[in-house]
């Protein structure tokens, strides 16, 4: 078999991630590779760190990019802060709270589950009840923006609750970073992780993380070694340290970090608050079109993420067939439901570079055409007009 060079088709990515990547970011990846201890590359690492601090709204010294995707950022937080025998209160209102539970158990700790319905935010009253019932708990872990449903929880309230009961916090911000307000220092979040492939408009494969002083103190005073050598912050700190000095730990994802650097430069140019506002504006237009069509959102508006929209199906429609038609006929990707919502919803992403007026209008037009062609019970021909009116306001 003769294998030739791979040339992927051009898609519009409006699923739950990865999102579309800016040509500027793709171009940055093609720049000459440097050694991971080259002084020029080390200087770029310092710039990445400073720009991540801006994106997270933190002054945390231990803010860095893990050379692996968001799932590794999750694991990095858990293996460093959780020891065998610990109790961890884990909030689950979708798929990714369940992954937190798995991380806790693989650390040899016990997960105390706080369960909420998929599509609902984490209930602070349930969290407080769990804290009262487990006064020896060490950590509260929750997902700020649940990618499987598009629901956003009140991070500030949950962190304050955890601190009131002497717990540290681990927060999943994979889908929220740069897309919706997130303020690590103001909300006093102890450990947080994200991914590059969502609202940062970057390629997959890097996980921004940040650890506050309380978390660093816990890491330094562990009774047992961190179970992962690669993710041990005691070792990695020396590579992402200050003053331009680096001790070899691993070969960083050099060209992927170029991409992250460029995406963070773009975020600075736009302004973080402007990025939040852009995601909100495009969501409002998509919402106008979806509702004009007669479709509904899964998540109540008060808790709905603007960058990840879960939409219910018209009766009698095969959701996979619709996604297939969008991909094959319009080169447009939207996402399927996961877990309890599999086969029941679509997930439409408006993240990062993909969050723009053109994509909103094209997605609504394509969805309208495909559903009308399947004789779905929708209001045909009105979605794009409704969205345009929303943009004009």
UniProtKB/TrEMBL annotation:
InterPro entries named among the record's database cross-references: Aminotrans_V_dom (IPR000192), Aminotrans_V_PyrdxlP_BS (IPR020578), PyrdxlP-dep_Trfase (IPR015424), PyrdxlP-dep_Trfase_major (IPR015421), PyrdxlP-dep_Trfase_small (IPR015422), SP_NH2Trfase/AEP_transaminase (IPR024169)
UniProt-annotated binding residues for substrate: 347
Modified residues (N6-(pyridoxal phosphate)lysine): 198
UniProt keyword list: Aminotransferase, Pyridoxal phosphate, Pyruvate, Transferase
Entry annotated with the keyword Transferase: yes
Cofactor: pyridoxal 5'-phosphate
Transmembrane feature ranges: none
GO annotation terms (biological process): glycine biosynthetic process, by transamination of glyoxylate
GO molecular function: alanine-glyoxylate transaminase activity; L-serine-pyruvate transaminase activity
Domain Aminotransferase class V: 42-337
The keyword Transferase belongs to this UniProt entry's keyword annotation: yes
Domain of life where this protein originates: Bacteria
Family designation: Belongs to the class-V pyridoxal-phosphate-dependent aminotransferase family.
Protein name per its UniProtKB record: Alanine-glyoxylate transaminase / serine-glyoxylate transaminase / serine-pyruvate transaminase
């Amino acid at each position: 078999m003769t294998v030739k060079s791979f040339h992927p088709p051009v898609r519009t990515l409006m699923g739950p991630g990865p999102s579309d990547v800016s040509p500027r970011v793709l171009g940055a990846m093609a720049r000459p590779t440097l050694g991971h201890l080259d002084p020029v590359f080390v200087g770029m690492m310092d710039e990445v760190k400073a720009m991540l601090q801006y994106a997270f709204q933190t002054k945390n010294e231990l803010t860095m990019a893990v050379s692996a995707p968001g799932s590794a950022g999750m694991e990095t937080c858990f293996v460093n802060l959780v020891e065998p025998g610990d109790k961890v209160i884990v909030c689950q209102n979708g798929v990714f709270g369940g992954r937190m539970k798995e991380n806790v158990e693989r650390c040899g700790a016990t997960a105390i589950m706080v369960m909420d319905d998929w599509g609902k935010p984490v209930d602070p009253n349930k969290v407080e009840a769990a804290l009262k019932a487990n006064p020896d708990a060490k950590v509260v872990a929750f997902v700020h923006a649940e990618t499987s449903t598009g629901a956003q929880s009140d991070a500030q309230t949950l962190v304050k609750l955890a601190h009131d009961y002497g717990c540290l916090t681990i927060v999943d911000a994979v889908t929220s970073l740069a897309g919706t307000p997130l303020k690590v220092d103001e909300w006093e979040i102890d450990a947080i992780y994200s991914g590059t492939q969502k609202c940062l408009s970057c390629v997959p494969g890097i996980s921004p993380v940040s650890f506050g002083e309380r978390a660093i103190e816990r890491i330094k005073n562990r009774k047992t070694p961190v179970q992962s050598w690669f993710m041990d912050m005691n070792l990695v700190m020396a590579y992402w340290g200050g003053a331009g000095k680096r001790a070899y730990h691993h070969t960083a994802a050099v060209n992927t970090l170029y991409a992250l650097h460029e995406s963070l430069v773009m975020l600075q140019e736009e302004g973080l608050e402007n990025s939040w506002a852009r995601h909100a504006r495009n969501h409002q237009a998509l919402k106008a079109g979806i509702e004009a069509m007669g479709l509904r959102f899964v998540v109540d508006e008060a808790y709905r993420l603007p960058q990840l929209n879960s939409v219910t199906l018209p009766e009698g429609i095969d959701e996979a067939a619709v996604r297939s038609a969008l991909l094959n006929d319009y080169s447009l990707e939207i996402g399927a439901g996961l877990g309890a919502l599999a086969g029941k919803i679509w997930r439409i992403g408006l993240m990062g570079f993909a969050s723009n007026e053109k994509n909103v209008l094209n997605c609504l037009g394509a969805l309208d055409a495909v559903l009308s062609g399947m004789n779905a019970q929708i209001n045909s021909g009105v979605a794009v007009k409704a969205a345009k009116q929303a943009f004009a306001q």
